[in-house]
Amino acid sequence: MKTSLAATFIALPIAAMVCGCTPKNPAAQDLRPVRTVALQYDQAAQTSRYFGSVQSRHEVDQGFRVAGKVAERKVDVGQTVREGDVLAVLDDNDYRLAEEAASQQLAAATSQARQAQSDRRRLEALKTDGSVSPSDDEHAQSRALESQAAAEAAARQLELARNRLKYTVLRASQSGVVTAVRVEVGQVVAEGQPVVAVANQGEPEIVVDVPEADLASFKTARFKASLPSVSQESFDVALRELSPQAAAQTRTYRARLKPATARRLPLGATATLTVEGTAPKSDVAPLPAAAITQSDGKPAVWVVHRAQDEAAGTVQLMPVVVHEYRTDEVLVSGPPAGELIVSAGVQKMRPGLRVALPEETLNEAAR
What we know:
- By secondary structure, the protein is of the alpha+beta class.
- The chain folds into 4 domains: 27-42 and 282-366, conserved putative lor/sdh protein from methanococcus maripaludis s2 fold, CATH 2.40.420; 48-57 and 202-280, Elongation Factor Tu (Ef-tu), domain 3, CATH 2.40.30.170; 63-91 and 168-199, CATH 2.40.50.100; 93-166, Helix Hairpins.
- The chain contains 5 helices and 23 strands.
- The protein has helices at residues 2-21, 93-126, 134-166, 215-219, 359-366, and strands spanning 32-33, 36-38, 42-56, 59-63, 68-73, 80-81, 86-90, 169-171, 176-181, 188-189, 194-199, 204-211, 222-227, 231-242, 252-259, 270-288, 293-295, 298-305, 312-319, 321-325, 329-333, 340-342, 354-356.
- The strands form 4 sheets. Strands 1, 2, 17, 18, 19, 22 and 23 form a 7-stranded mixed beta sheet that branches.
């Protein structure tokens, strides 16, 4: 009997200790912390996005003005050149021979012209005493004029031959960066065939293709552009040129836009053009893209319902209408303004789940 009583007295403190370790509110451990955002409606401008590329306003495809075999290639893609720098050289042996032949023809024509002029002057002196008939005098004058004209034509031929020899060296017509090289040493090129493309980096433009349905609103819109390769900051651009004719294959209109302020942009980079229309949309609310989930294949969000002065609530799924997807947010409508929307961890939500509201949300609600 004494042993039983002693065991009882020992068991009671142990039971008390166990009861003291048990939480008074077991439900508090079931609260899942969440991030929320209050739904706020406002009028948003009609926006569209186009993807294009950065191109130079002045990009020249340069080629030789004569045909021949490429003897030297002086530049590579990405190399910066100045106006007048040598880009490529053709084999000029044939053109040097042509220059020498033209020079010799000029010498012969000049000699004949001098001889004809000398003959005409001698006949002119003999004409006074009747030794030369008027007919012979006219022939002498004609030969002198013909020989003089032949000498002038030979001089022009020599000038052309020298020019063609000069054209065997291709020089940059403008300063810039080489964007394409289409020949190799030993390749035979035709006259006027594009050989090297040089782009002026000083005037970059953003080039996009506009669908026919957006053409009217595009002309009066405001534009911003961003380049992922440079930074996420956007900058203003202005429409410089809009093609009056649609492309035959895509049926789109080529638009070229220039930065509102001078800036250097990497040529060939991908550009995102944001077009803001002048007509506002109906009231919409921006939400983080991570807040959107699906219900029966349609867009939905998790809404937190809580009683007044409570630091917790339950979540319910509510459908929304998505108006536009942006880079990191979505414009929606549907739920009443002021509703608390779960903005992160939506994949772990379930209907009726109790969640703990963040402290900043409670402080904002208290104000």
